Amino acid sequence: AQSVTQLDSQVPVFEEAPVELRCNYSSSVSVYLFWYVQYPNQGLQLLLKYLSGSTLVKGINGFEAEFNKSQTSFHLRKPSVHISDTAEYFCAVRLTGANNLFFGTGTRLTVIP
Amino acid sequence: NAGVTQTPKFQVLKTGQSMTLQCAQDMNHNSMYWYRQDPGMGLRLIYYSASEGTTDKGEVPNGYNVSRLNKREFSLRLESAAPSQTSVYFCASSESPFVAGANTEAFFGQGTRLTVV
Fold first, then answer.
1. Which residues pair with B75 in a beta bridge?
2. What does the pLDDT read at residue B97?
3. Residue A2's pLDDT is what?
4. pLDDT above 80: residue B112
5. What does the pLDDT look like over B32-69, one tens digit per residue?
6. Which chain A residues contact residue B31 at CB under 8 A?
7. Among A29, A74, A20, which residue's Cα sits nearest to residue A48?
8. Using CB atoms and an 8 Å cut-off, which of residues 3-42 of chain A contact chain B?
9. Residue A78 · residue A86 · CB < 8 Å
10. What CA–CA distance (Å, rounded) separates B109 from B5?
């Protein structure tokens, strides 16, 4: 069975500080990996995705993530956060050849002025 | 380009009432999905439709039915609403992963906030 774990439910960080949001997954087959962001009262927007190739993936708004197959992780990072990054972030996994996405429970990032 | 459109945006139901949540996408995607979002639980898949004419259960299908009306539209029906179905419902779509080289990104609607009293 596959699962997605986001260990941190809430992450407060000061403006202009770096941040890392953690995501681990378990799967017996190859996966595609995604990070989505949800701003208050809105739907989900794709930040970045890993399908294949380079393990370091760059996304929108200055975010990046690194796929680590041996540690089954896909942590999201940003070197300097802004107030506007305050939102909930979801990691998601899709098995290759399958139709459904499995989501983690989300991490609420709060950027403190 | 509207993407994924959900209606209604908000709804209050009494226990036992029925309703249908509508979803339409204009990206010519094969696959469509219904998720529910509850605090501390992330998004959980209710039903999905891999292609027109097919539907399959997800993680939490009990109490729901779906219809893939055509390639564009995928509706979710609550036959007899219960307070446990109070949630935010999201519809999403993506190209089929069975198509070589297909982009597996899912696009989401803005959500329907449903309260069952």
1. B67
2. 62
3. 62
4. yes
5. 999 999 988 889 999 999 888 899 999 899 999 999 98
6. 99
7. A74
8. 4, 6, 9, 32, 34, 36, 42
9. no
10. 5
B39, HSE (Cβ side, Cα atoms, 13 Å): 3
DSSP-assigned letters across all residues of chain B = ---EEEE-SEEEE-TT--EEEEEEESS--SEEEEEEEETTTEEEEEEEESSTT--EE-S--TTEEEEE-SSSBEEEEESS--GGG-EEEEEEEE--TTSTT-----EE---EEEEE-
Instruction: Please give the residue of chain A at the shortest CA–CA distance from B50.
Output: A99
- Mutation pick from B32, B51, B54, B108 vs chain A, by most beta carbons of A within 10 Å, is B108
Cis bond upstream, residue B8 (ω within 30) = yes
Q: Which residue has the higher pLDDT, B85 or B51?
A: B85
